[in-house]
Design goal:
six-stranded mixed β-sheet; alpha/beta; Rossmann fold; binds iron/sulfur cluster
Length: about 230
């Protein structure tokens, strides 16, 4: 596998060529252009991610997949992880914070997420993500344009200047219905909390159910201005 360095101009052309194509074609471009150890799917066990697990395993059964374990995930999210392992034989790599919850409470006080969620996200998500991405040349995410105004212009393929690697978003153009149609068609395990008014699921202390008609991400960090943990800013 060549160690080609992709320029932003080249990535723009790749993006233009993949715009309007299927998610599998974007995934295939990534798998064909980066070595086995150089590309990985970020999986938070949400609907988009489980759909991408199904797609990527069908294209390359040994594809790398990683997840961020904040030590504050719902049990139901970890159940999805275990069901995916059982169904597809995947070996998702776990990345977590260097400090456990007790150490974080001792340093910053109890329940940091209630006082300073940005600091908590930085410790339990951003630093582990930077570690997960540090040895990669490309990562795959499940973000979609309709999820939030901050994602409305997300490209299929681009240079991720924040983490300094190529970012591939195969599902950017998909609607919520497309995701769920795919999940049901392929009988993919999903988080049972989605059937209980949790459209978007993160850590347990920062995720609330959403009432019909509300923004699907309204249940994330309710009471704060915060809408993103920083992974895709
Ligand atoms: S989502 Fe909440 S609990 Fe999880 S890392 Fe961020 S602030 Fe902490």
């Amino acid at each position: 596998m060549s160690e080609k360095i992709w320029t932003e101009e080249e990535l723009k052309k790749v993006n233009d060529s993949l715009e309007g194509k299927s998610p599998e074609e974007a995934l295939k471009w990534g798998l064909d252009n980066f070595g086995q150890e150089e590309i990985s799917l970020a999986c938070s066990f949400g609907p988009e991610d489980v759909a991408l697990v199904d797609m990527i395993v069908k294209l390359r059964p040994e594809a790398r997949i990683f997840y961020l374990d904040t030590d504050l995930l719902f049990k139901e999210s970890l159940d999805v992880r275990d069901k995916l392992i059982s169904k597809y034989g995947i070996k998702p790599e776990r990345f977590g914070a260097k400090t456990n919850l007790e150490e974080m409470a001792a340093e910053f006080g109890p329940e940091l997420w209630k006082k300073e969620p940005d600091k908590c996200c930085n410790i339990r998500k951003m630093v582990p993500l930077a570690e997960a991405l540090s040895n990669l040349r490309a990562w795959v995410t499940g973000i979609r344009r309709e999820q939030s105004p901050t994602r409305a212009n997300a490209p299929v393929v681009s240079w991720d200047a924040k983490f300094k690697l190529v970012k591939i978003n195969p599902l950017v153009a998909w609607k919520d219905k497309d995701v769920w149609d795919y999940i049901h068609k392929h009988n993919i395990p999903y988080n049972v909390l989605h059937d209980k008014n949790y459209p978007s699921i993160g850590c347990e202390p920062c995720t609330k159910p959403v009432m019909p008609g509300e923004d699907p991400r309204a249940g994330r960090w309710a009471g704060f201005q915060k809408t993103e943990c920083g992974l895709h800013k």
